[in-house]
Amino acid sequence: MIKVSLHGAEFFAYHGFYPEEQLLGCKFVVDIDVEFHAAADMTYDHIADTVNYEQLYNITETEMRHTRKLLEAVAQSIADRIRAEHPFVETIRVELKKMNPPLKGRVAYSAVTIVNNK
């Protein structure tokens, strides 16, 4: 089993249930892990035989541009795009953190995690 990860990818986006959140925006941090069985001998050193973490970043960047009310919807859309572009992946884990959410007290982040198993 091979695991490819992209952790700490930062984005400024406008996700949130309340209109103010969609107007003001917020910083988000995304962590992604994908696991799969190698279909080829990895010593051949071909990027086509793995999941390119640059592609994971590009997928995430695109989906973060689409404003949604629920973080769950954002994380699911990222997982769905990864699955569509890399159908050989066994497990996809997407954690989306909303930094300093607008609550009454100080909170470092709120988060949702989507795990998608084949």
CATH architecture, by name, is: 2-Layer Sandwich
Low-confidence stretches: none
Strand count: 4
What is the molecular shape?
elongated
What does this structure look like?
The protein is an alpha+beta fold. It has a single domain, classed as GTP cyclohydrolase I, C-terminal domain/NADPH-dependent 7-cyano-7-deazaguanine reductase, N-terminal domain (GTP Cyclohydrolase I, domain 2, 2-Layer Sandwich), CATH 3.30.1130. The chain contains three helices and four strands. It has helices at 19-24, 53-64, 71-85; strands at 2-13, 26-36, 91-99, 109-117. A four-stranded antiparallel β-sheet has the order 1-2-3-4. α2 (53-64) crosses α3 (71-85). The longest helix is centred in the middle third of the chain and has 15 residues, at 71-85. The protein is elongated and about 50 Å long. The chain starts with a strand and ends with a strand.
Summed up, what is this model?
Helices cover 28% and strands 35% of the residues. With 118 residues, it is α+β, with helices and mostly antiparallel strands. It has a single domain, classed as GTP cyclohydrolase I, C-terminal domain/NADPH-dependent 7-cyano-7-deazaguanine reductase, N-terminal domain (GTP Cyclohydrolase I, domain 2), CATH 3.30.1130.10.
For this entry, give a set of tags.
GTP Cyclohydrolase I, domain 2
Write the layout of secondary structure elements.
Blueprint lengths: L1 E12 L5 H6 L1 E11 L16 H12 L6 H15 L5 E9 L9 E9 L1
Antiparallel strand pairs: 1-2, 2-3, 3-4
Helix pairs in contact: 2-3
